[in-house]
């Protein structure tokens, strides 16, 4: 019975890149310490910009505005007027609420 790679224990062979074979290691250009440091700084700046953008996207104020905009666009027609379905739902809710209030007042009188 063979075990999956993730479960296998014991000594492991070194991992090589697909183009890299044990006989012919991949040749990478040598970089100076300054070039490596510059690459690290550029990546750090890019990461900081990405984090700032994500924080801006996830701010509660922006999420609330986006949600309100989506709800508003679903409730109105492209011309800006209310949708018939929305008016019907509001009228139905008012009717049911009015009937409940009327019924509760009627029961108190008895």
Helix content: 55-70%
Determine the N-to-C terminus distance.
82 Å
Overall average pLDDT: 82
**Count of DSSP-assigned helices:** 3
Number of DSSP E strands: 0
Oligomer: single chain
**pLDDT < 50 stretches:** none
Please state roughly what percent of the residues sit in beta strands, choosing from under 5%, 5-15%, 15-25%, 25-35%, 35-45% or over 45%.
under 5%
What is the approximate shape? Answer: elongated
Query: SS-based structural class?
Result: mainly alpha
Report the radius of gyration as a whole number of Å.
Answer: 33 Å
Largest sheet, described in full? none
**Topology as a string of helices (H) and strands (E):** HHH
